[in-house]
Amino acid sequence: MDKLKKFNLMEKIARELEDVRNSQQAVLEKIGKIEVDNIELGDKLIESKMPDIYQRTADNADSIREILESFQEKTEEYSEKNNIDKLREQDAINNVK
Question: H/E element holding 96?
Fold first, then answer.
């Protein structure tokens, strides 16, 4: 795989990780709303299960954030090391010809 293709794939993975992180955040917010609504309703199953689900989801969100931050740094370092901006310029020139 050439350097530009590898970098593009790295960027794609970083975007997908960001999407997963955003989705996890939305899930946490929804779980929180369910817990708040259940205060009035008082369903025992929701009351007993949701805190554990929330915690596991929060732990997963933390792991995803950690992976994302590390991967973004790795992607940026790869870009700088391999002069990706210059490679993109050259690729654009080659595609015009």
Answer: helix 84-96
pLDDT digits (tens, 9 = 90+) for 8-52: 999 999 999 999 999 999 999 999 999 999 999 999 999 999 999
Residues in the chain: 97
DSSP state, residue 82: T
Reduced 3-state DSSP string for 17-30:
HHHHHHHHHHHHHH
- pTM for the complete prediction? 0.82
Quick: pLDDT tens for 49-66: 999 999 999 999 999 999
Question: Contact, 82 vs 7, CB < 8 A?
Answer: yes
As a three-state string, the secondary structure of 40-78 is: HHCCHHHHHHHHHHHHHHHHHHHHHHHHHHHHHHHHHHH
Residue 92 corresponds to which amino acid? Answer: A
Cα torsion 38, 39, 41, 42: sign: positive
